[in-house]
Amino acid sequence: MNNSQNASYQAGQAKGQAQEKASGMMEKASNVAQSTKESLQETGGQMQAKAQGAAEATKDALGMKK
């Protein structure tokens, strides 16, 4: 293998490694985004349940339940 072929081979290797690393980083970012979305949905559900409970307690206290 001459110097030009070796340099080309090395460049191809570096490009492949960079692409693989970028792919891995994108997958991690996607996983973080999905986890964050799920966490926010859970938190939103908990907040909604607490607000509903507070509204029911207020209705009870004011005698507004039917």
Automatic annotation (TrEMBL):
Bias type Basic and acidic residues, positions: 57-66
Region (Disordered): 1-66
Ranges of Polar residues composition bias in the record: 31-43
Extent of Low complexity compositional bias: 10-22, 44-56
Alphabetized PANTHER family for the sequence: ABA-INDUCIBLE PROTEIN-LIKE (PTHR34191:SF23), LATE EMBRYOGENESIS ABUNDANT PROTEIN (LEA) FAMILY PROTEIN (PTHR34191)
Name of the protein in question: Stress-induced protein KIN2-like
Lineage: Eukaryota, Viridiplantae, Streptophyta, Embryophyta, Tracheophyta
